[in-house]
Amino acid sequence: MTKSKSAKPVKAKSAGAKPRQPDVTRRNILDAALVEFAAKGLAGARVDEIAARSGSNKRMIYEYFGNKEGLWLTVLENAYTRMREEEHAIDVARMKPEEGMRYLMEFNFKFCSRNPEFIALLNAENLHKASYLKDSKKIRELYTPLLVVITDLLQRGQKEGVFRKNVDPVELYTTIAALGFFYFSNIHTLSTIFGRNLLSAKQQKIRLDHSMEVVLGFLRP
Prior knowledge:
This protein has 221 residues and is mostly helical. The protein is globular. It folds into two domains: 1-66, Arc Repressor Mutant, subunit A; 75-221, Tetracycline Repressor, domain 2 (Orthogonal Bundle). It is built from eleven helices and no strands.
């Protein structure tokens, strides 16, 4: 009886693992594609390399994503989705206006610092003039909640007298994003030009503090 009882969980576990295997394969392909695309861009990336890195094969990649361009778009969407999900992990609506704005700026800056692959993907897609991202059915939906959060912070800040009036949330977010993106997308050239290691923790903190003062200084009435 003891043997028969122990055998049942083993069978149930192995049977239950099979439906999840396609998800694992798909995830492995996406992880491998992120590395390959970030390093070589869309044109330079090779499906053979992605298949080898993911432990899959080209047939599976084409079955899941259609072609290399479809895989590229999925990797892009996943990168944006991950950023938004991490950003929304904190309930900014419960923060005071200045605190919430500081959080958004700090998150954006540190996300760029932690994810150089994200910078590389965006640089590559901009070279293509966002021709692939334009086909995305979800990218704008990802940013709508963010604009709602920023608008709420601005409105509450205006009522409390800590923010100026008539600030466009899209323009403000573009500025916040630029302060982090430009720094890290040009980190090596800037470090060389100015003779500073701008990747060091000290220099990153200096830059983040400066960026916050620039934005908050603009927002003050």
